[in-house]
């Protein structure tokens, strides 16, 4: 299952991702809580979400173009350094009058992430190839995400109480610096040899070429529609999770247990993804995962006790992790690496738009009707997304060879055990 870790460059990429993601998740609760403490305003607190998503909506496609033109390794460690500087601005926020600096810092950090995410998604298959090691890498990242989700937010809240908000900021700054150092130690893998000056005309031409590649690829087109539909439904219920937990399950502590259960589901889903990715065609696996999420949505938001809610949350985590990793892996395998950054950026932009739409639609419908109406709507939309999987090409599992770097001395360990390089775990 962990065969990808036998490759030095992936170990460095994965380690940097783990550290920087944990540093960011430590602030998930701490930053809104700090704004609420300073201002006492729910509106001011809610603006932290807008500050994080707006750069993705505005800069997403351009970020993808730059990702496919520039050295991705250099771009990734440069954006890590940029985000470290951006986060340091939070240390200047001391009063309601300076909260605007917090929004500014979050927007800058998000702008750096807009460049980093498509570069990272495109760099993984460039390092490990598009065969079984890609399944290993993506399932390992899913386990990492689950672990961080499980411990990051509550740990950050506890550390903020014990050691203060500034301590968390310094930890996050340090996490970006560690990530930058790890990525800088990886080998450079130029994307294109024909890149000249980066002009507005050339950027526009590259963007058109990326969109054309997306339009021509049936797998990519279908995944974009399915992912956008599902993420909008997911956001509509995610926006209601805290009020649901408080009113139906008993309070914020119970809601915290539900969030932790989602993280447990991600941890369980990681090994399961590794087993299934190279055995089940993407459209069947994704359809099954989405149906599982829909059932989990219904069970969770029908719960009246914590005992009923926790298994449903675990199920959502398991199937939800699959619903995220399957499209990512299928996209990485379906497209040439030269355009993967641009297409990935389009997906991330659609994700941001779907999340914002769902986060507004869910509470609006809940106030106009009832939270159960949102539950049925989200379940129905998720089932629709599962049905749309039928339009995906009936592609089999990928058997693409691994890159030459697998033969490096440090990664030769991956070839010692046949189970590590085949489809077995």
Give a description of the structure.
- The chain has 425 residues and is an all-alpha fold.
- 78% of the residues lie in helices and 0% in strands.
- It folds into two domains: 196 residues, Growth Hormone, Chain: A (Up-down Bundle); 198 residues, Up-down Bundle (Growth Hormone, Chain: A), CATH 1.20.1250.
- The chain contains 16 helices and no strands.
- Helix 1 runs parallel beside helix 6 and helix 2 packs parallel to helix 6.
- The termini are close together.
Concise overview:
This protein is mainly α and 425 residues long. It has helices at 8-25, 27-39, 42-69, 72-88, 99-128, 132-163, 165-184, 200-216, 218-238, 241-249, 252-277, 282-300, 306-334, 337-368, 371-388, 418-421. The protein folds into two domains: 1-196, Up-down Bundle (Growth Hormone, Chain: A); 199-396, MFS general substrate transporter like domains (Growth Hormone, Chain: A, Up-down Bundle).
């Amino acid at each position: 299952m962990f065969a990808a870790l036998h490759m030095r460059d992936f170990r460095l990429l994965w380690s940097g991702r783990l550290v920087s993601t944990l540093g960011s998740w430590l602030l998930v609760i701490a930053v809104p809580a700090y704004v609420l403490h300073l201002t006492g305003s729910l509106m001011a607190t809610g603006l932290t979400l807008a500050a994080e998503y707006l750069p993705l909506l505005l800069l997403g496609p351009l970020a993808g173009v730059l990702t496919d033109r520039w050295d991705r390794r250099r771009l990734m460690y440069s954006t890590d350094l940029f985000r470290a500087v951006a986060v340091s601005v939070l240390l200047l926020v001391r009063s309601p009058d300076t909260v605007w600096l917090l929004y500014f810092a979050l927007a800058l950090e998000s702008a750096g992430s807009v460049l980093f995410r498509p570069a990272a998604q495109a760099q993984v298959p460039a390092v490990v190839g598009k065969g079984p090691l890609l399944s290993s890498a993506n399932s390992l990242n899913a386990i990492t995400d689950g672990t961080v989700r499980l411990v990051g937010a509550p740990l950050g809240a506890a550390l903020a109480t014990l050691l203060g908000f500034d301590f968390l900021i310094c930890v996050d700054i340090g996490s970006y610096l560690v990530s930058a150092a790890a990525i800088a130690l990886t080998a450079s893998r130029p994307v294109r040899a024909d890149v000249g000056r980066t002009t507005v005309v050339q950027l526009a031409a590259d963007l058109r070429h990326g969109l054309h590649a997306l339009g021509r690829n049936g797998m990519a087109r279908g995944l974009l529609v399915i992912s956008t539909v599902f993420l909008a439904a997911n956001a509509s219920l995610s926006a209601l999770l805290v009020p649901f937990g408080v009113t139906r399950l008993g309070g914020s502590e119970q809601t915290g247990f539900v969030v932790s259960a989602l993280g447990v589901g991600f941890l369980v889903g990681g090994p399961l993804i590794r087993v299934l990715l190279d055995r089940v065609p993407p459209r069947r696996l994704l359809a099954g995962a989405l149906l599982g999420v829909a059932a989990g949505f219904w069970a969770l938001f029908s719960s009246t006790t914590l005992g009923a809610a926790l298994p449903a949350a675990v199920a959502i985590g398991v199937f939800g992790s699959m619903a995220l990793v399957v499209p990512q892996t299928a996209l990485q395998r379906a497209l040439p690496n030269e355009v993967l950054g641009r297409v990935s950026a389009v997906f991330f932009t659609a994700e941001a738009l779907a999340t914002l739409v769902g986060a507004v639609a869910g509470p609006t419908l809940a106030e106009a009707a009832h939270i159960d109406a949102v539950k049925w709507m989200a379940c129905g939309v998720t089932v629709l997304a599962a049905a749309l999987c039928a339009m995906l090409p009936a592609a089999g599992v990928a058997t693409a060879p691994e890159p030459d770097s697998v033969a490096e001395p440090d990664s030769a360990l991956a070839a010692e055990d046949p189970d590590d390089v085949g489809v077995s775990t």
